[in-house]
Amino acid sequence: MSNQQDYRSSKFIDGLADRMKDAEAQALRGSGSSDVLYESRVQAAYASILDRAPESEKQRAEEILRERGYDPDFTPCEAGEGECDLTGIEIDCCPCGRHP
Questions:
Q1: 13, HSE (Cβ side, Cα atoms, 13 Å)
Q2: Burial class of residue 37, CB neighbours in 10 A (0-12, 13-18, 19+)
Q3: By C-alpha distance, which of 58, 68, 64 is closest to 27?
Q4: Cα dihedral 94, 97, 99, 100 in deg (nearest 10)
């Protein structure tokens, strides 16, 4: 049974690059022109990928994700006065549709 477990674990790492690319593409599609929203979405996706990693592969998976930009201590940007708290873009220019 341990051979089967090792096989599954290595399959996770082998597919990690594709998972990261998919996560980045999804984050990009949903973020419009906002780097703030993209970063928030991609960091959440990376954390989700790491959560799904087999325990025996978590350390290596985290190393790979960090090389790609994963920050386990990520703190979303706080919007300033006149900025959208979702996108970080000035409210008058923000495309999110939540502003009058």
A1: 15
A2: buried
A3: 68
A4: 120
pLDDT in the model for residue 22: 95
Strand partners, 90: 83
| Rounded average pLDDT per 10-residue block, the chain, 100 residues | 45 93 91 87 97 95 97 92 90 86
Provide the token pair at 59.
């350390």
49: left (phi > 0), else alpha (psi -120 to 50), else beta?
alpha
Token pair belonging to 54: 């087999």
Output helix, strand, coil percentages for the chain, rounded to the nearest 5: 60, 0, 40
